[in-house]
C-alpha cells in the first residue's frame, strides 16, 4: 500500500522544518555512541560506587563484557496504575542475569494522578510534573553506567516526561514497559451519570463515592480512554513497546512474560551487538506522525496536543497543531472507547485493540511501516498479539475482522471519516478541540460570553442559578504561565447537565480538559494565554463569540476597532503563587513555552 499523500506531505514538512534542529540532535547522540560497556569508561572509584550494593551482580559489573540495563521507575503504591511496578525490578534483574547481563534501578520519578488532584490545588503542579519527570529521568541516567534503558511508567505526564528525559540519552536503546489496565468495574457511562446527578444535587456524596469506588477498584490504569491509555496506544504506534504490551492486565503470567521479553530485547539492541537501535533513531519524524495518526484514529486525549509537541522537540523535531489537524481530518475514527463511546479499554483490547487498529491504518497507507521498532522488526510486527503457549511467549496475527463492531471497526467502515481533533484559529488566537464525542449539532455555537477567572467561579454561578440560556463559558488565567495549566475536568458534569437541559453551551479556556472530556464543545489550550496578554483576556461578559469546530475557527464578533483598542485583563495570579508546593515551580512558570510549543519549561536556548 502506497503512503497516503497527507501522511507523506506532513512527514516531509516536519522533516524540512526540523532540518537544523534534528541534525544537531542526531550529531550529538551519534557522537555519544560507544561500543564497549558504559561502565568500563568509569574510573575505579566511580565504578566501585556504582556496584557497591549490587549483590550477586557485582562480578558482572566488575567485568568488561555484557550489557547493564538502567531501570527508571515511576513506582508508588498509592496510585493504582503504578502500584503493579513494585515487583518489576526483581523480575528484570533475574531476566537480565539469565540473558548474560545485569540490571539496576537507576532512579525513580514522581507519578502524580490527575484523578486524585482533579479540581484541587495540586492540579496546578500536574503539567509541570512532566518536566520534573524528564529531569528525574536524566538524573537517573547521568551515572553513565548503562547500555540500555527500561522505563516503567504508564500515566498522563509520566510517559511523556520519561520520553523527554530519555531522549537526552538518545544514544541508548530505550523500551517503555507498561503495567496494564485494571479489570472492568462500574461502566464509565454509569459513573458519569452519577457524577452529573451529583452536580445537579440529585445524588448524595455516599452514592457518588460508591460509584467512583466501583469504577476505580483494583491495581492498573483507569479503564477509560484518557491520557494514560492514549499513551499506551501511542507507544505501540511508535514501536516503543514489545508488540501488544499496552492492555495486558497487571499481575498475570502474560504481563510478566512481556516484561522479561523487554529486558532480553533491551540487551540485544545495545551498541554492544549487531542490532543497535538507539532511541534517537527510533523516535524520528515518521514515528511522531504515526503517534498523531493513532491518536486521531482512536479519539485519544487532547493532552497529547501538548505532550507530543514537547516529545518531538526533545528529539529535535518541530511539530504544531496544523500537523495534527491535517492528519486528523484524513484519519478515520476506528474506535469508540469512553468518553468517545461506552466501552472501556478492556473491551477495546478484546475487540482487536491496538494491533487491529494499527494494521488497518498501515493497510490504508496512513502510517509509516518502516520505522525502527524496539522489538527488531517493522511496525507490521507491532500489530501482533502476544499469548502464552504454556510458559512460552509467542505472538500471533490480530483478528482478521473486528470482534465487536460497536467498539472497533475497519477503515472501510469507520465510525467517522475523520479523527475529530481540530485546530481552531481566529482573532482569539489558536486552540485545540476534540469533537469525536461531540454530536454534530453541537460542534458550532454563536452565543454571548460568560467570563470567569476560575473554574470554581463557574460552579458557584451554576449553583446560584445564574447560568441560563445559551452561552460560551470563558475560563481564563488557566494557562501554563498563569498557574501551570490545570485540567478543568471538574467542569464536565456541570456543563453536561446544562447541555442536557437544552441549552447550547461551549467552553473556551487557556487551560486543559481531561483526557476524559466528552460531549460538550470545548476550545482549549487557547494560545497566547491570558497571562501572556492573549486575546482571551480581551473578552468581556456579553461579547458574542463564535466557535465553529467544523470550520476550524473561533472569533469574538466585536467591532475590529474596539477589539484592537481593548486592554487584556484578568484576575490577579498571586493566589496561585504559593501553597501545596506551588512556590517551588516559579521558575517553570516563568520559563514555560506556549501551549502550541508543548507548554514545556525545558527548552530554553542558552546563550553561548
Automatic annotation (TrEMBL):
PROSITE patterns: ILVD_EDD_1 (PS00886), ILVD_EDD_2 (PS00887). Residues 68-381 form the Dihydroxy-acid/6-phosphogluconate dehydratase N-terminal domain. The keyword Cytoplasm does not apply. Its EC number is 4.2.1.12. Its cofactor is [4Fe-4S] cluster. InterPro entries: 6-phosphgluc_deHydtase, Dihydro-acid_dehy_C, DiOHA_6PGluconate_deHydtase_CS, ILV_EDD_C, ILV_EDD_N, IlvD/EDD_N. Pathway: Carbohydrate metabolism; Entner-Doudoroff pathway. GO terms for molecular function: phosphogluconate dehydratase activity. Residues 407-599 form the Dihydroxy-acid/6-phosphogluconate dehydratase C-terminal domain. [4Fe-4S] cluster binds at residues 155, 222. It catalyses: 6-phospho-D-gluconate = 2-dehydro-3-deoxy-6-phospho-D-gluconate + H2O. Pfam families: ILV_EDD_C, ILVD_EDD_N. The keyword Iron applies. Binds 1 [4Fe-4S] cluster. Keywords: 4Fe-4S, Carbohydrate metabolism, Gluconate utilization, Iron, Iron-sulfur, Lyase, Metal-binding. Belongs to the IlvD/Edd family. Catalyzes the dehydration of 6-phospho-D-gluconate to 2-dehydro-3-deoxy-6-phospho-D-gluconate. This is Phosphogluconate dehydratase. The lineage of its organism: Bacteria, Pseudomonadati, Pseudomonadota, Gammaproteobacteria, Lysobacterales. The gene is edd.
Amino acid at each position: 500500500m502506497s503512503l497516503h499523500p497527507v501522511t507523506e506531505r506532513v512527514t516531509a514538512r516536519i522533516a524540512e522544518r526540523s532540518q537544523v534542529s534534528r541534525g544537531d540532535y542526531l550529531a550529538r547522540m551519534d557522537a555519544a555512541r560507544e561500543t564497549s560497556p558504559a561502565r568500563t569508561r568509569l574510573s575505579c572509584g566511580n565504578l566501585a560506587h556504582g556496584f557497591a550494593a549490587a549483590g550477586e551482580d557485582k562480578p558482572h559489573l566488575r567485568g568488561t563484557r555484557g550489557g547493564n540495563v538502567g531501570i527508571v521507575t515511576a513506582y508508588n503504591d498509592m496510585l493504582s496504575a503504578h502500584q503493579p511496578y513494585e515487583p518489576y525490578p526483581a523480575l528484570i534483574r533475574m531476566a537480565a542475569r539469565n540473558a548474560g547481563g545485569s540490571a539496576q534501578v537507576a532512579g525513580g520519578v514522581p507519578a502524580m494522578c490527575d484523578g486524585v488532584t482533579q479540581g484541587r490545588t495540586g492540579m496546578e503542579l500536574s503539567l509541570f510534573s512532566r518536566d520534573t519527570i524528564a529531569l528525574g529521568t536524566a538524573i537517573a541516567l547521568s551515572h553513565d553506567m548503562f547500555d540500555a534503558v527500561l522505563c516503567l511508567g504508564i500515566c498522563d505526564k509520566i510517559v511523556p516526561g520519561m520520553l523527554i528525559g530519555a531522549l537526552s540519552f538518545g544514544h541508548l536503546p530505550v523500551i517503555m514497559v507498561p503495567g496494564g489496565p485494571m479489570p472492568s468495574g462500574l461502566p464509565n457511562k454509569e459513573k458519569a451519570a452519577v457524577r452529573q446527578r451529583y452536580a445537579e444535587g440529585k445524588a448524595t456524596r455516599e452514592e457518588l463515592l460508591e460509584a467512583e469506588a466501583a469504577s476505580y477498584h483494583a491495581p492498573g490504569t483507569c479503564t477509560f480512554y484518557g491520557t494514560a491509555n492514549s499513551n499506551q496506544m501511542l507507544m505501540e504506534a511508535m514501536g516503543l513497546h514489545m508488540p501488544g504490551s499496552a492492555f495486558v492486565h497487571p499481575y498475570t503470567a502474560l504481563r510478566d512474560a512481556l516484561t522479561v521479553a523487554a529486558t532480553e530485547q533491551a540487551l540485544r539492541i545495545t551498541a554492544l551487538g549487531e542490532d543497535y537501535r538507539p532511541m534517537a533513531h527510533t523516535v524520528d519524524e515518521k514515528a511522531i506522525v504515526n503517534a498523531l495518526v493513532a491518536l486521531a484514529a482512536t479519539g485519544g486525549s487532547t493532552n497529547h496536543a501538548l505532550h507530543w509537541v514537547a516529545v518531538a522537540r526533545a528529539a529535535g523535531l518541530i511539530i504544531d497543531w496544523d500537523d495534527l489537524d491535517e492528519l486528523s481530518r484524513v484519519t478515520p475514527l476506528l474506535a469508540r472507547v469512553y468518553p468517545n463511546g461506552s466501552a472501556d479499554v478492556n473491551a477495546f483490547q478484546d475487540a482487536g485493540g491496538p494491533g487491529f487498529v494499527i494494521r488497518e491504518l498501515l493497510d490504508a497507507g496512513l502510517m509509516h511501516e518502516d520505522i525502527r521498532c524496539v522489538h527488531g522488526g517493522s511496525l507490521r510486527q507491532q500489530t501482533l498479539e502476544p499469548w502464552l503457549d504454556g510458559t512460552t511467549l509467542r505472538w500471533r496475527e490480530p483478528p482478521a475482522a473486528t470482534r465487536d463492531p460497536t467498539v472497533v471497526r475497519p477503515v472501510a467502515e469507520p465510525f467517522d471519516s475523520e479523527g475529530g481533533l481540530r485546530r481552531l484559529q481566529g482573532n482569539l488566537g489558536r486552540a485545540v478541540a476534540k469533537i469525536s464525542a461531540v454530536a454534530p449539532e453541537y460542534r458550532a455555537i454563536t452565543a454571548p460570553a460568560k467570563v470567569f477567572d476560575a473554574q470554581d467561579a463557574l460552579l458557584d454561578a451554576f449553583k446560584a442559578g445564574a447560568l441560563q440560556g445559551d452561552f460560551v463559558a470563558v475560563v481564563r488565567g488557566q494557562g501554563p504561565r498563569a498557574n501551570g495549566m490545570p485540567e478543568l475536568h471538574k467542569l464536565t458534569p456541570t456543563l453536561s447537565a446544562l447541555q442536557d437541559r437544552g441549552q447550547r453551551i461551549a467552553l473556551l479556556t487557556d487551560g486543559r480538559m481531561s483526557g476524559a472530556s466528552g460531549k460538550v464543545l470545548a476550545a482549549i489550550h487557547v494560545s497566547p494565554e491570558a497571562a501572556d496578554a492573549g486575546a482571551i483576556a480581551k473578552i468581556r461578559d456579553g461579547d458574542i463569540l463564535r466557535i465553529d469546530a467544523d470550520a476550524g475557527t473561533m472569533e469574538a464578533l466585536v467591532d475590529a476597532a474596539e477589539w484592537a483598542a481593548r486592554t487584556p485583563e484578568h484576575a490577579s495570579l498571586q493566589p496561585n503563587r504559593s501553597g501545596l508546593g506551588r512556590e517551588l515551580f516559579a521558575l517553570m512558570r516563568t520559563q514555560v513555552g506556549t501551549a502550541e510549543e508543548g507548554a514545556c519549561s525545558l527548552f530554553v536556548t542558552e546563550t553561548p
